[in-house]
């Protein structure tokens, strides 16, 4: 049985004052409910992890370097993320792939680093609008998944997030049939690669304009185990009903 996961990606938003959101969300994270994850900017990892203690909320980073340490100005490593008190790291988000030229091979190296630091990797895949309209979405996503994952995945240390680039921050959401088609294909590909048990254990998140008013429909979709939420994770007023919809799904 896969535990559902409501993950919030704050992107480059938030200062210490915004950690009050964790307090506002505290009641939403229950032992038998969905896992609730907040991924704040790196500057907030440690204070967020400290503030989340005892709330059931877990904390994740938004990327990490593939090396454990060294002369990489501005970067943070997976052991640093873990040392800050985080348990998860988002890898291969399209904003990293597009903005920083991260390749599938780079993402796979970062996943290896995350696993070596005992972090759960949330690996993002997703097609552009051009891919979707050109009919190549499934092929593009399949290739991203194949080359962004190293061997050795388990249901505990891997989560896959499907985020169509054209749905991120746009208010546009794929149809539930389109989401189901991708998630079913991801599940099948994970099973083929890592074996049926692992394939069935890895959680699959949908991300891209998830809001309180569309969450229930998305969470009722085949092989959707939760969401990777951007804008709507910045306030408890928006994120709480999304977590509640996931708990009901
Ligand atoms: O990581 C989160 C996604 O990029 C979705 O962002 P959004 O919910 O603001 O569309």
TrEMBL record:
Its EC number is 5.3.1.1. The active site is at residues 93, 163. Gene3D superfamilies: Aldolase class I (3.20.20.70). One of its GO terms (biological process) is glycolytic process. Keywords: Cytoplasm, Gluconeogenesis, Glycolysis, Isomerase. PROSITE patterns: TIM_1, TIM_2. It catalyses: D-glyceraldehyde 3-phosphate = dihydroxyacetone phosphate; L-erythrulose 1-phosphate = D-erythrulose 4-phosphate. GO terms for molecular function: triose-phosphate isomerase activity. Transmembrane segments: none annotated. It comes from the Bacteria. Substrate binds at residues 9-11, 169, 209, 230-231. It is found in: Cytoplasm. One of its GO terms (cellular component) is cytosol. Pathway: Carbohydrate biosynthesis; gluconeogenesis; Carbohydrate degradation; glycolysis; D-glyceraldehyde 3-phosphate from glycerone phosphate: step 1/1; Carbohydrate metabolism; erythritol degradation. InterPro entries: Aldolase_TIM, TIM_sf, TrioseP_Isoase_bac/euk, Triosephosphate_isomerase, Triosephosphate_isomerase_AS. Involved in the gluconeogenesis. Catalyzes stereospecifically the conversion of dihydroxyacetone phosphate (DHAP) to D-glyceraldehyde-3-phosphate (G3P). HAMAP family: TIM_B. Belongs to the triosephosphate isomerase family. Homodimer. This is Triosephosphate isomerase. It comes from Sulfitobacter sabulilitoris. The lineage of its organism: Bacteria, Pseudomonadati, Pseudomonadota, Alphaproteobacteria, Rhodobacterales. The gene is tpiA.
